[in-house]
Amino acid sequence: MKLQAIFVGLVIVALSLFFLSPKVNSLPVGANVTSNTSSNWSAAIPSRTDAGGTITTMVLDAQSQDDGWKGYVGNISGKFTLDDASGYSIYDWSFTVTEGEVYISRAASPSWSTAICANTTIISNEQNYFGMTAAEYDIINKTFNETIHQSFRVGVVDIVNSSCSSAFTYVNDSKYPYINESTPFQEVLLQTGTDLIYAALLETDNEGFHTGYTYDFQAIVPDNRTNGVTTTYYFWAELGT
Amino acid sequence: MLKKTIYAKLLVVLSFLITVFSIANLVFGATDPVSPQSITQISTSGFDTTDYPAQNTTAIAGNVTELSITALAPTQSWQGYFGNITGTITLQDASGNIFYNWTVAEPKGEIYASLNSSINWSAIKCFNFTANTSLEINLTTMESTYNIQTADVDGIDETFNETSNPTIYVGQYTVAASSCPTTYVYQNTGKQYTNFINTLLTDKEKLVYTTVIENDQTNNNTDVTGYNGQSYDFQMLVAEDGHNADTSTTIYYFWVEIT
Fold first, then answer.
1. Which residue in A146, A102, A142 sits closest to A126, CA to CA?
2. Is B212 in contact with B205 (CB distance < 8 Å)?
3. Which of residues 169-208 of B touch A (CB under 8 A)?
4. Phi, psi (5° rounding) for residue A202?
């Protein structure tokens, strides 16, 4: 019977399958933030004991924790997946993330296909939102005061290298010795419509701001200086290999 | 007279050879996998970013927060096919005149897919990742076709990284068990190593994606649960170039062999 079937089989088939399906472009995906820990800086209080009758000349070097910015650091794991629209996976590939971006924004639903470099109007609007004034040293356009970064892709949109406002968060407790397109922990300002997007380009376990600790990303975002007022930021990730 | 005898003998030999070749053609030609009579697309969908809404966290000025992020991205190298199959084993002549039909509700056998519409089934064998390209296609050849980089985690060899295929009967040709690049497409429980076996074959010039139709055990007509909890007869992966925002589609040709 089997041989008969093999030798003279002409099959009448109805296949229920996916056929010539439209492509899915890899837009940024809502990132699953599974844990976080926060820390704040508190300065040690210096003191002196000087004998009476002396005059001491002092040079004071003061630091003050910036209450206009918030820092995020961490690691990212990911996988490529072959999913249907309901989120069921027919196959996936786990991997160590070596390329990609973490996007952070106050906007919950950016229109990724419209992503471009943030212009001065958008940046200015964001500064106004947080009550930043031009005279301050730590406003957004004075922080993101470079235009140096790698090229990268936001969904289907190519962002040309060194075309957008950028900043470089610190490595080993200090500013990186040199700034070029290979310097780690690049952060780039984008906009989608009227929404400002902070794009932190991913590293692979690079030493971060905290000496001896490695991270895949570091990002800073502005926050309201008013004590007790918080800002909600949304996170997305776009992965490469 | 002698000349006539020689001609008569030659005629007999020639007749014999014609008969042999005719039978061979009749028998062997019919054993190759057959194109399905119809393919019906029931539905199609892909990765939906709205399934993964933006996650948020609350910023407090002056703090540095450590995060652990897990993220997904859709593969840019693969297309999945799944579905059901019904068939008929038929006895018919070369003109398509049916002598007898046997309807098969739960066929057993294989489904084949290829970029090419013509496969030399007589040369079918395991796809060899490291084959000499002067003799046949290899991994480099095919990953280049799909714009897959060697280091890509979802490349062909990273996906078909098992060699636990069952014996596959392609017409009259046998592909030995545990010899070909193989993978197992997911069931609703995720990765598994039992059902929905996918294997890579080649005729030396074209890559042939092969999946074993489920219910391949004797007297087993119970469908196997697929990736989404529904039961299917087959689930299949084929490579496709979606890199660099490529939105063009690729045509795949299908064959079915019911046993």
1. A142
2. no
3. 169, 171-172, 183, 185-186, 188, 190
4. -80, 145
In the chain, the amino acid numbered B240 is E
Alpha helices (runs of H) in chain A, residue ranges in sequence order: 2-8, 120-129, 140-143
For A173: left if phi > 0, alpha if psi spans -120 to 50, otherwise beta; the answer is: left
Query: Cβ of B89 and A7 within 8 Å?
Result: no
Residue type present at position A72: Y
Q: Which residues pair with residue B138 across a beta bridge? A: none
The CB density around residue B244, as the number of other CB atoms within 10 Å, is: 10
pLDDT band of residue B253 (cuts 50, 70, 90) is: very high
* ipTM confidence score: 0.75
- One-letter-per-residue 3-state SS of A154-204: ECCEEECCCCCCEEECCECCECCCCCCCCCCCEEEEEEECCEEEEEEECCC
Q: Please name which of A64, A211, A220, A224 lies closest in space to residue B64, comparing C-alpha atoms.
A: A220
Task: Provide the 3-class DSSP secondary structure of residue B66.
Answer: strand
Q: Which residues of B touch A77 (CB under 8 A)?
A: 68-71
Chain B residue with minimal CA distance to A36? B67
Which pLDDT band, with edges at 50, 70 and 90, does A17 fall under?
very low
Q: Is B158 buried (19+), middle (13-18) or exposed (0-12) by CB count in 10 A?
A: middle
Q: What is the residue extent of each domain of chain B?
A: 78-258
How much is the pLDDT for A133? 92
The residue whose two tokens read 């001491």 is A56
What are the boundaries of each domain within chain A?
Answer: 71-240
Give contacts of B37 with chain A, Cβ < 8 Å.
Answer: 11-13
Q: Long-range CB contacts (< 8 A, 24+ apart) of A41-49?
A: A41/A65, A41/B62
Q: Which residue has the higher pLDDT, A154 or A36?
A: A154
Look-up: residue for tokens 């249907």? A84
| Residues in chain A, total | 241
What confidence score (pLDDT) does residue A24 get? Answer: 42
Task: Find, in chain B, the residue whose alpha carbon is nearest to that of A12.
Answer: B87
First vs last C-alpha separation in chain B: 54
The whole-number pLDDT of residue B5 equals: 56
Pairing between β-strand B253-258 and β-strand B109-114 as defined by DSSP bridges: antiparallel
Evaluate whether B241 touches B115 at the Cβ level (below 8 Å): no
Query: Which two structure tokens, joined as six digits, stand for A195?
Result: 């929404």
